[in-house]
Design a protein that fits this description.
Length: 212
């Protein structure tokens, strides 16, 4: 699994999830901030500055971060593995349960061609990512779980949908690798706090072994 360090941009919400790549000095790294809006605005500003200075834009953007896993995927299936997505949606749980309405013309899905093939890589779990911009702390209802399962939305992340929106606008390929830290639900935040540092280190170690 080879990539070109000079033209690929690695981004993450927080430094702890990208520190090994940043410290190596070999990779182009960027901290986008937390949440869809913050991440999108910061990446857009970064890319516009490059364009205005006549500098080449990245050939692809890879997000490294953490994600919760929806309960339709049993922990025995995903624990110890890493998530991978090249398709991103924004499906609020309240929208799925018809407690709120979002106008139909609002874009809620972005798909990119996958630059990697992982069928034979046991450590990687591919699925789509639901970029809600928030953390679901309620127990996810059966109705919502059935929708998420049908759509193959396995992961929940706070930044990727905003980043995908910007990458689509700039026509830059985008994908994401995740440390899978918790089951989405009432205990998710505490599980994330306990696991994100260890799992982020594992993810970076794994990817660095491939990207050389």
């Amino acid at each position: 699994m080879k990539i070109e360090p000079a033209t690929t941009l690695f981004c993450s919400a927080i430094s702890e999830e990208l520190d090994q790549f940043a410290d190596s000095g070999r990779w182009n790294t960027f901290l986008c901030g937390v949440g869809n809006l913050e991440a999108a605005l910061n990446l857009q500003k970064f890319l516009l500055e490059k364009r205005n200075q006549n500098e080449p834009l990245p050939s692809q953007i890879l997000f490294l971060g953490s994600a919760g896993v929806y309960p339709w995927l049993h922990p025995s299936f995903w624990k110890g593995r890493f998530g991978y997505s090249h398709e991103f949606q924004n499906q609020e749980i309240a929208k799925i349960e018809k407690r709120i309405r979002v106008p139909e013309f609002v874009a809620d899905s972005f798909e990119f061609r996958s630059p990697f093939q992982f069928q034979a890589v046991e450590e990687i779990l591919p699925s789509k990512t639901n970029g809600t911009g928030s953390v679901t702390i309620d127990t996810v209802s059966g109705r919502s779980l059935e929708f998420l399962r049908t759509e193959d939305l396995g992961f929940e992340n706070m930044e990727c949908f905003g980043l995908a929106r910007v990458c689509s606008e700039f026509q830059i390929p985008f994908c994401a690798f995740f440390a899978l830290t918790n089951t989405v639900g009432p205990s998710g935040s505490e599980e994330w706090k306990q696991n994100y540092r260890r799992e982020s280190t594992r993810l970076q170690d794994f990817l660095l072994s491939f990207f050389v």
